[in-house]
Amino acid sequence: MNDTCRALALLLGYPDTRLRELLPQLGEFFAADRSLGPAVREGLAALVAELRNGEPYEVEANYVECFDRGRSTSLLLFEHVHGDSRERGQAMIDLRATYESAGLQLAPGQLPDYLPVALEFASTQPPKVAREFLAEMSQVLNGLHEAIAARRSRYAAVLSAVLELAGERVRHVPLPPEEPLDEAWAEPPAFDGCSTRGQARPDGAQPIHLVPRTPGAGTDRGARPFAAPLRQGVAR
């Protein structure tokens, strides 16, 4: 189970050159992995084949389209539970403490609720502990699977695999309507069109639109999730 968690964490990473070089090894690993059922292994094989055979630019663009175009498919788990509320900050502090109590320190640029980081952590734990840890996330994982499947992305197979490792089944979860990006990232005018001396009042309120984060913002996808040394690659 531990090696499977690590392999799934790698497969969820940004499909840059480093990851594409690992795809043959990942494909072999999943084909031989008996901790997952045949249907899940078949889905993972299809994803690996798509990543291997696709044009690098298209593969990267598809990844961004899947995970960086709306909150419903975000790999930041607490975003699905707490949104941008203060509770999310406390939940992240608690999760970081869980990692540190196991002797692991997050590397700079990594967020504790990033799903590949959570999978890396699970890969360092005894199977029973790892299974219980993942099972606690099952509701969020089911919602994430539903949202990714709705986009007809093969990445849904990774969520099916994680749920299976957690001892859970994929369940249908109704998805709330997703805000368009412009609405999700918009902020009200800072001064609501008020004028000050030397500053003319505009004809109307000018909304400020924040630029959505670039791929990998807040999660350094090219770095190891934990500063503590971990095995490189996928152990067999």
Task: State the gist of this model.
The chain has helices at residues 2-11, 17-32, 38-53, 56-67, 77-82, 86-101, 115-123, 127-135, 138-150, 156-165, 181-184; strands spanning 186-187, 208-209.
Q: What order do the helices and strands come in, and which of them pair?
A:
Elements: H1 2-11, H2 17-32, H3 38-53, H4 56-67, H5 77-82, H6 86-101, H7 115-123, H8 127-135, H9 138-150, H10 156-165, H11 181-184, E1 186-187, E2 208-209
Antiparallel strand pairs: 1-2
Helix pairs in contact: 1-2, 1-7, 2-3, 3-10, 7-8, 9-10
Main attributes?
11 helices, mainly alpha, 2 strands, 236 residues
What does this entry look like structurally?
The chain is mainly α. It has one domain (1-172). It is 51% helix and 2% strand. The protein is built from 11 helices and 2 strands. The chain has helices at residues 2-11, 17-32, 38-53, 56-67, 77-82, 86-101, 115-123, 127-135, 138-150, 156-165, 181-184; strands at 186-187, 208-209. Helix 9 (138-150) packs antiparallel against helix 10. The longest helix is centred in the N-terminal third of the chain and has 16 residues, at 17-32. Residues 193-218 and 226-236 have low confidence and may be disordered.
Unreliable stretches covering 5 or more consecutive residues:
193-218, 226-236
SSE-based structural type: mainly alpha
N→C terminal distance: 11 Å
Tally of DSSP helical segments: 11
SSE string, helix = H, strand = E?
A: HHHHHHHHHHHEE
Largest sheet: 2 strands, antiparallel
Shape type: globular
